[in-house]
Recover the amino acids of this structure.
């Protein structure tokens, strides 16, 4: 199946994260890894927020798409397992652990998503699970 044949809403059948059934979260990783950043950003609500590591919040689909096009070109996410729970305000919190790989390093990551009842991503935070020393070593050499 080519990326052009992948539904914008449904993840391909072979893409799975243990413990996660929320289609928007599965599509987030699938489109991110395929470099389909406009489709990744379209998973967010109108005022959706992405909080990448070591950065300020990025708000709105257009800003998220622009950020991903600039910063995520050579990054692959390898989500492994996750849990989801319904919060008091009827939103769903999804936590996914795995690895992110760049051309020069790999690091353990926790992704936190807040979804509305329509499965739109309201907020996501990408948290690096590394010691301060490991984080310093992640900076690209000039």
């Amino acid at each position: 199946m080519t990326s052009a044949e992948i539904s914008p809403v449904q993840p391909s059948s072979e893409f799975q994260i243990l413990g996660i059934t929320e289609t928007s979260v599965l599509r987030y990783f699938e489109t991110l890894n395929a470099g389909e950043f406009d489709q990744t950003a379209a998973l967010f609500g109108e005022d959706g927020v992405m909080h990448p590591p070591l950065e300020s919040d990025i708000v709105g689909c257009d800003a998220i798409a622009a950020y991903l096009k600039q910063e995520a070109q050579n990054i692959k996410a390898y989500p492994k397992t996750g849990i989801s729970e319904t919060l008091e305000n009827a939103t769903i919190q999804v936590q996914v652990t795995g690895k992110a790989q760049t051309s020069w390093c790999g690091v353990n990551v926790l992704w936190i998503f807040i979804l509305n009842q329509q499965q739109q991503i309201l907020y996501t935070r990408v948290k690096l699970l590394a010691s301060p020393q490991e984080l310093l070593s992640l900076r690209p050499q000039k």
Summary: Residues 1-8 have pLDDT under 50 and may be disordered. The longest helix spans residues 23-33. The CA atoms of residues 24 and 52 lie 18 Å apart. The beta strands are 44-51, 58-59, 76-86, 92-101, 106-115, 121-128.
